[in-house]
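Input sequence (259 aa), recorded before submission:
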Amino acid sequence: MPDQDYSAITDIVVSPHFDDGVLSATSALHAGHSTLLITVCGGVPAEGQERSHEEWDRLCGFESGPAAAKGRAAEDRAAAAVAGNSVMHLPVPDAPYRSRFPSEMVVSALAGLIRRDVRLWIPVGIGDHPDHVGTRDAVLAAVAGADTDCPLIFYADCPYAFGSGWDAPDSERPIADQWEPQLAALAHLVDVASPRIARLDDPTMRLKIAMLRCHASQLAGLAVDHPHFLAWEGPLRQEVFWSTSASIPALEPTPGSSA
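Predicted structure, token format:
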């Protein structure tokens, strides 16, 4: 991790991609200067590694993967400035631009930030995206290897979590977006049947919309499948969390990642 002083930080939101923390955990970001927003997949891919993500990057207005990464990093810094958050971007390219999730590097980057008085907000992995699941497992591995425990708060990954409606049963969700398989992996840490459902108050909702508007490149793509997701009383008004402060046992590596 960088040499910057994070001693005043009380909350760390670990975001797989630049916009995931805002989409899913503005409840933590509204705390301002005491919150650090870490984007795990904040790296710039090598030129020529366009692969399957090129279509999405072009839909979002970028000519290449490297241009998208640099542009989105600037958007993230602008969004964080709205809330007064500190930011950290790890040098991990998005999944389409690499062969595996670099768990060891992520664990190493996070290790020095784990303290008993700091809450870590991390994705459940709903959506079964390799970057989300890899991020979750890397954080758990970092905590398992630390000298101290710290409170963990798992957040429902948006927009996957509400794509079929917040209250939809798993049988009505696409297989990748089903909650139960990812929550089952955390059943030894949290009470999966007792989530904390947060309805954002007006100031926090205004902050969320303002931060998301900074991620302007992503809005066109997200609106294809979620045309009303920025509505004042839309699905983003709700966030869902599961908390634990239990000791974290070591995990088996996720397929496609490195332990």
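Checked by second reader. The longest strand covers residues 238-244.
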